[in-house]
């Protein structure tokens, strides 16, 4: 692979044999893929923790619409990702509307791979790749996203061979 052929942006779909609990049945939005490594965000691991319970605002939000935290990956779990660095944008995402906008995501942590690590995992058939789909990421319940993503490739996820390597 040449580095003009970066996979990012793409979705990584964990194969059924992925046993790491951080990635089993995960859908990862691959944000960066370069010679020195890769970085992505798991987009289908919703928690029941409210963003307002962990984000510190002064003054506190006037209203809490129930925006929940997603686990973006095991690396730096104390680091939050909202597709904007502005705390005021995050405040508005929490305060506006009676229910959270389904296109708002607040993620803690990220997935990271060292140089050559993701390529090795792809060669071992640990991941499938799929085009990024706004409808899939924001329009599919997190608990259904993995299966829906694999089915979008025309594959029945239950027919995938368990094991490593090419089959």
The total strand number stands at: 8
CATH fold descriptor? VC0467-like
Structural class: alpha+beta
Number of domains: 1
The biggest beta sheet is recorded as: 8 strands, mixed
Uncertain stretches: none
Quaternary structure annotation: single chain
Q: How large is the share of residues in beta strands?
A: 25-35%
Return the string of H and E elements.
Answer: EEEEHEEHEHEHH
- Report the mean per-residue pLDDT as an integer: 88
What Rg is obtained from the alpha carbons, in whole angstroms?
17 Å
User: How many helical stretches?
Assistant: 5
According to CATH, what is the class? Alpha Beta
Dominant shape: globular
Distance between the termini: 22 Å
CATH superfamily: VC0467-like
Helix content: 10-25%
Under the CATH scheme, the architecture is 3-Layer(aba) Sandwich
Q: What would the keywords be for this entry?
A:
167 residues, alpha+beta, VC0467-like, 8-stranded mixed sheet, 5 helices
Outline of the structure:
With 167 residues, the protein is an alpha+beta fold. Helix content is 22%, strand content 29%. The radius of gyration is 17 Å and the shape is globular.
Write up what this structure looks like.
The protein has 167 residues and is of the alpha+beta class. Helices cover 22% and strands 29% of the residues. It has five helices and eight strands; from the N terminus they run ββββαββαβαβαα. The protein has helices at residues 51-54, 87-95, 117-123, 134-139, 142-151, and strands spanning 10-14, 27-34, 37-42, 46-50, 68-71, 75-81, 106-114, 127-130. A hairpin with a 2-residue loop joins strand 2 (27-34) and strand 3 (37-42). The two termini are 22 Å apart. The relative contact order is 0.22. The model has no long low-confidence stretch (mean pLDDT 88).
């Amino acid at each position: 692979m040449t580095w003009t052929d970066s996979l990012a942006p793409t979705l990584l779909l964990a194969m059924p044999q992925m046993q790491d609990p951080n990635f089993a049945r995960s859908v990862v939005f691959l944000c960066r893929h370069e010679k020195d490594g890769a970085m992505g965000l798991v987009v289908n691991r919703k928690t029941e923790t409210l963003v307002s319970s962990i984000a510190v605002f002064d003054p506190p939000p006037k209203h809490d619409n129930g925006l929940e935290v997603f686990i973006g990956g095991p690396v730096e779990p104390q680091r939050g990702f909202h597709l904007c660095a502005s705390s005021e944008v995050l405040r508005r995402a929490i305060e506006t509307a009676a229910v959270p906008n389904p296109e708002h995501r607040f993620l803690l942590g990220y997935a990271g791979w060292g140089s050559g690590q993701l390529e090795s995992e792809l060669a071992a058939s640990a991941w499938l790749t799929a085009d990024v789909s706004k409808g899939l990421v924001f329009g599919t319940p997190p608990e259904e996203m993995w299966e829906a993503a694999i089915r979008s490739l025309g594959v029945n996820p239950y027919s995938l061979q368990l094991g490593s390597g090419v089959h």
